[in-house]
Amino acid sequence: MLTSRESTQGALVVLFLVTMIDMIGFGIIIPFLTYLVQDLAEGQDAVSIGLWVGLLMTAYSAAQFLFSPFWGSLSDRIGRRPVLMIGLVGNTVFFTAFGFSKTLLFALAMRFLAGVFNGNIAVARAYIGDVTSPQQLATRMGLIGAAFGLGFTIGPFIGGEFSNPAERWGFFGGTIFDTYPYLLPCVIASALSAGSLLLAGRYLTESIDLEEAKKSADDRPWRQQMASMASNSVSMLRTRSIGAMIWVSMLFIFGFTVMHAVFILYTEMDPSAGGLGFSEQDNGRIFAMIGLFGIFTQAVLIGPLTRKYGTRRLIPVSILLTGIGLTLIPYTQASRALIHMILVCSFVAIGNGLFQPSASTYLTRIAKDEDYDLGIVMGAQESMTAFARIFGPLSGGFVWELTVNGAYPFDYHTAFHLCGILMVISALLTMRLPQMSPLPEETTSESPAGVF
């Protein structure tokens, strides 16, 4: 028989794994997505590679956004535990199914369905809130941020290292992994999800009283919940300081996710055309490096820098640092690709690692100081950043297709220049943010954030 303390600790481990697998599922396709689209596009007329890359990146985030209210409401009715386990079952099935893609439409459908079942991160946060005292809440919510960072480091690494195994290791030749070259990393992700499902079955107990939860459950139809989310977002955007901070965050995420669609399109280009000629493995290692830089930033740098300079000052600096890195990516020289990539990606990862927790902490302070409902404020921010994650990759793919064959500066550089422009606008908007005196106890643990 598990004690209450052991049960809670086991549940927190499972929640950490659920969140980490969410980011693994998001990041695992990044190193090989462009190659997969190119393979599946063979024999299909008038396929725009950039647009399909953007669509496949967007499908996951769009599904998460659309189905988060559904999973949240369902968890109020049937409990957190079954909803989280349903998500793990869906991950196990649809991660592997994506690896069996033979057409672009099938790949899009599987990616969307994987996002549907990964729309329960809000349920994981709610579970932590259910079992945590106010004094422990900041620390335990930090698990979510750590899981995001670790998941984004592991996911692209797995996606890169285990893509196309038949060409790298002879014993995979003539097997199913020869026919489906991107199946192995997807199977590994499914195995991690299945392992988490087994742990959930043992250690994840229900966190709420179902009878009490049903009384306060949101019984509104999905359409009304989405309309309410939109209404709250619009009302928050109209406020001066909170609206400015939400716009800053949205533009930052928009610029960042444009890069998600075009980074591999650039790195896999032949060096004679201006690209780097990277393989799936090269791309996976680069993204793993970005993840490690982000983890280092949030584990080592963010605390001392916040205490020294304050959250308000870090926000525009982190935005500009990220924008410089994103803009410089297409200027990497193939002959010195590794050195240049380490430099520009350190700018990107450190800037993002500083921005995410600083922005959330600052928004929390504004909401409390101006006496706004924190749930409504954070919900509005999540809605707007979800919008950015949906349309950022699509915009990146669209701009790439329009400009890749053009002449400088309207060529493969253009999409990265767009990232930089969005970052500059975001940084300029921080001028509208009010100055706030730093608190002696100010830390970033109140608002953990992932690498992306």
| The top level CATH class name of the largest domain | Mainly Alpha
**SS summary, helix count:** 18
Low-confidence stretches: 440-452
Shape: globular
Write out the CATH superfamily name of the largest domain.
MFS general substrate transporter like domains
Account of the 3D structure:
This protein folds into two domains: 206 residues, Growth Hormone, Chain: A (Up-down Bundle); 233 residues, MFS general substrate transporter like domains (Growth Hormone, Chain: A). The protein has 18 helices and no strands.
Which key phrases capture this entry?
single chain; about 450 residues; mainly alpha; Growth Hormone, Chain: A; 2 domains; 18 helices; about 0% strand; globular; disordered C terminus
In terms of topology, how is this protein built?
Blueprint: H1 4-27, H2 33-41, H3 49-78, H4 80-99, H5 104-117, H6 121-131, H7 134-161, H8 165-168, H9 176-179, H10 183-203, H11 210-216, H12 222-237, H13 240-267, H14 280-309, H15 311-328, H16 337-369, H17 374-403, H18 414-429
Helix pairs in contact: 1-4, 1-6, 1-7, 1-10, 2-3, 3-4, 3-5, 3-13, 3-17, 4-5, 4-10, 7-10, 7-14, 12-17, 13-15, 13-16, 13-17, 13-18, 14-15, 14-16, 15-16, 15-18
